[in-house]
Amino acid sequence: MSIPRDTDGSLSSCLMFSKPRHPHLLNDSEVSSVVPCQNGWVYDKSDFKSTLATEWDLVCSRKGMNKATATIFFIGVMLGAPTFGYLSDRFGRRPLLLVSYLTTMTFAVLSALSTSYVMFGIMRFFTGMSTAGISIISIVLNLEWLGVEQRTLFGVLFSLDWTIGSCILVAAAYMVNEWRLLILAVTSPLILAVVAWRWLPESGRWLVANGKVDDAHYYINQCAEMNNRCMCMATITPRTLLESVDTNTNDNKYTFIDLFKTANLRKLAICTGIVWFGVAFTYYGITLNITGFGLNLHLTQFIFIAIEIPMKIALYFLIEYVGRRLSQSGTLLSTGLFLFINMFVTKDKWIIRTVVGVLGKAVSEASFTIIFFYTIELYPTVIRQNGLGYTSFVARLAVALSPLIMLFEDVWPLLPPMIYCGMAVVSGLVALLLPETQDTRMPEFIEDLDKPREKLTKGKVI
Predict the structure, then answer these.
(1) Dist. CA 140–CA 279, nearest whole Å
(2) Residues facing residue 17 across a β-bridge
(3) Using one digit for the tens of pLDDT, what is the confidence trace for 205-240?
(4) Average per-residue pLDDT in the chain?
(5) Is 38 helix (H, G, I), strand (E, B) or coil?
(6) What span, in angstroms and rounded, lies between the C-alpha atoms of 31 and 424?
(7) CB atoms < 10 A from the CB of 81, how many?
(8) What are the extents of the domains in the chain?
(9) Chain-centre distance for alpha carbon 114
(10) 52-210+250-450 in CATH: which number?
């Protein structure tokens, strides 16, 4: 008598009649005006005691503000990636990693202490910017210390860190169901990261490429001692390191603009940009539209994350024996295939749709894993962070656009999956235009891109 019904026949959770309606009088003139709920809302707190929605009533006409927080965060990531990319190429990986650790902790704590939605949105924006620095600097710093023989294995292991961290996130969300405390809980591991930072070496490649040969020799010598390879250091001195550097190059201060200055670098930037856009666009398109398993929120999320572990283990052997280029292209084309298949599976066959969807997400995640360290191997050391910052910016742009594609569902239900499928196929074909980097030395300077990549024998290169 007091609550109108939605188009699907269910009682509205957002609207009420201004006056009770008599059940036997169906004339429209007897229907009182429909108004928003006047007495607030009662929330289901079986999963979470408090959320952003319950904190500031972000429901009904305000529910878009709840979704906007993720968009605000990713806009911060989108802008933070090129910013930290430029700064870490200019001032070094190690100091900027510490900056990103400290600023992420600071803005995350301020997010948890927010007294208004506006304050929370601003803090999440800056948290996103800082988090981007952690993401792109940490993997570059790690891979720049690895030789040809170890890059594939550790590239996959770093990706498994991401998966294990996501599983821990689900466990934290299960145990801590109050949003302010949850933010603090998932930020707390950064305290350990700051402590561990003390023992992190600066990138030897970055130091040599920028002419800081004394520091480079110090860290390389430490590396040799740790790996019982001191004999290799007999002929390596700061002077020999200096002689290996082009003095006309190491004084340059590279920026994002330099990614498009030479023909080879321009081709690389355009192709990697398209591939990154396709990878992120399809990954989030699948993630946002896979049907669940009929299980609770935490278990469903855990299953979707845990399935990545065996996939990434298998991915190591794929990359090792097939190579980066074909693996990148193959995973993207496979993603497009699974999206295409799901277009013709009716919604009542939810088991088949879920299985195909999970397989699609698995190969899509595989493409994300490959493109991260593939990009690092493609760009020269002097501009590597700028390159990764640029591609991360393009990826976050894809993340922002991906959910909007679902608006085309009202035009034609098959149009969104067709767009996702088409983008996966196009980016998979563009990946074939990239050079193969398996068992090759990573380039140090822009001029190295004009030279044929040197194929190295494993076990003979430090």
Answers:
(1) 19
(2) 34
(3) 888 888 888 888 888 888 888 888 877 777 777 777
(4) 83
(5) coil
(6) 51
(7) 27
(8) 52-210+250-450
(9) 25
(10) 1.20.1250.20
